[in-house]
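Deliverable D5.2: sample structural annotation.
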Amino acid sequence: MLSCRELVDLVTEYFEGTMPVEERLRFERHLAICPPCRGYMTQMRETLRLAGELREESLDPDLRSALLHTFADWRRSDGP
């Protein structure tokens, strides 16, 4: 059985369609029995939908700078 933490770790593969069949079945079985993870998936779908509507030129320059800084810090902290 897949845990909630594993589901969160695998969500990108699931949405991209790159997850092996057996893993996808485990993922979907977990969703079938876990209301919090179904809620998480609903939120992720909406986030992806809204993110697809964003364009760089629509961002306030200060917000763009803050986001880039945050992502750079995140990548540095996630290193080896």
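Annotation notes: The radius of gyration is 16 Å. The domain at 4-77 is CATH 1.10.10 (Arc Repressor Mutant, subunit A).
The annotation will be released with the project's public dataset once the embargo ends.
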